[in-house]
Write a structure and sequence with these properties.
Blueprint: E1 2-3, H1 8-15, E2 25-28, E3 32-33, H2 45-58, H3 75-81, E4 87-90, E5 115-120, H4 130-140, E6 141-148
Length: 156
């Protein structure tokens, strides 16, 4: 998943809310920022080069990242730039993740109330059992913590 330039204003506003971003943070899926850090399998470098070039051509005229803070390769790097240090990425398949748990399956009670902030930027809709994933996510948040959901496209 990715945070694109047009999403940045939403996250600027959310992240600016007092107390929303607090250690420890759990994040569903590894979130890249912008085109330069898109993650593709490295099996065919020529195909990757063509896909990136095509995306860049098609993205001409789209908003660019104006906020220097969001000039990071991924959300973990951005959060660390904000002084946060305890960030756990949950993904059963991504080698960059810290917790290899399938969110379709219930979390063990040892993981309950393990984070102050839970961030899901566009990963929930990729999980088969949405109810279990959402229940897992909410169980991980401590009382008084925050759930930061993925972006929601408005009408138009």
């Amino acid at each position: 998943m990715a945070i694109l330039a047009q999403h940045v204003p939403w996250y600027e506003e959310i992240f600016a809310q007092p107390g929303v971003l607090q250690d420890p943070i759990a994040m569903l899926g590894f979130q890249v920022i912008g085109i330069n850090s898109l993650c593709f399998p490295l099996s065919n470098p020529l195909l990757i080069e063509r896909l990136v070039a095509r995306f860049r051509r098609r993205s001409l005229g789209l908003p660019q990242l104006a906020n220097e803070e969001f000039r990071a390769s991924d959300l973990v790097e951005l959060l660390k730039k904000r002084g946060l240090r305890r960030i756990v990425v949950i993904d059963p398949h991504d080698p960059r993740s810290d917790l290899k748990h399938d969110m379709n399956e219930p979390l063990p009670p040892a993981s309950w109330e393990s984070c102050q902030t839970f961030i899901d930027i566009g990963s929930l809709e990729h999980v088969f059992d949405t109810r279990t994933c959402l229940e897992n996510s909410l169980r991980m948040i401590r009382v008084g913590g925050h759930f930061v959901p993925g972006h929601v496209e408005g009408p138009g």
